[in-house]
Design goal:
By secondary structure, this protein is mainly α. Helix content is 64%, strand content 7%.
């Protein structure tokens, strides 16, 4: 009887561990960074839509929107990317005077990206959706022949897409030779899917691009 007690199977509760992991991933650890990650770019879009009601002066609207997007560019590039998803990119000059682009992805002890799933969704949602909205504004301005607004929209798209491209390079590991349009599209699809589905699609990212 004693030996039977010693060898008795122990039932492990994996459900509780999964629930605890899901609860931790749903937590927003950096609420201030999450707020400002969306604040400047959303306000810039709202100002653009309401510009005719806010001010009849195009120059004032232009300066206000570019200022908001400049703050957004700086905060996303230098603060929110590092805190929410552990990614950074920057430019530096080497000893030979050449310009180098550096793309960094910080991992935790398990080799996974830092931050929670909730923060990652906020980060990528703002980073992907807002440039699409400005692209829509580009076509509406073009087809409605609002030529003076095109310069503003193009500048806005440039600021937004610069950060998006930089962080996609970080996500791809900063690889140079094999980073092409196919890799870019796959990364975008892999990042967009969790925004609408809780399923983790990060297993889609590793691929052999040597054949392209």
């Amino acid at each position: 009887q004693a030996m039977a007690d010693d060898t008795e199977d122990v039932e492990l509760d994996f459900t509780a561990d999964e629930e605890e992991r899901a609860r931790r991933n749903a937590v927003i650890r950096h609420p201030l960074a999450s707020f400002f990650h969306l604040f400047f770019r959303v306000v810039a879009i709202v100002v653009y839509l309401l510009c005719d009601w806010i001010s009849k002066n195009f120059a004032s609207c232009f300066v206000l929107i570019i200022t908001l997007l400049s703050f957004d560019f700086w905060s996303v590039k230098n603060v929110t990317g590092r805190l929410l998803v552990g990614l950074r990119w920057w430019n530096q000059i080497d000893e030979d005077g050449k310009s180098l682009w550096v793309f960094e992805a910080k991992k935790n002890s398990q080799g996974r990206s830092i931050g929670t799933e909730a923060e990652a969704r906020i980060f990528w949602l703002g980073l992907i959706v807002c440039p699409l909205i400005w692209t829509f504004f580009f076509f509406t301005s073009l087809f409605s022949l609002k030529i003076k607004w095109l310069a503003l929209v193009v500048a806005s798209i440039s600021l937004q897409v610069a950060n998006l491209y930089g962080y996609l390079r970080c996500k791809a590991g900063g690889q140079e030779g094999h980073f092409n349009i196919l890799h870019l599209l796959e990364l975008l699809c892999a990042l967009c899917m969790p925004l609408f589905d809780a399923a983790d699609c990060t297993h889609m990212l590793p691929m052999d691009w040597s054949s392209y």
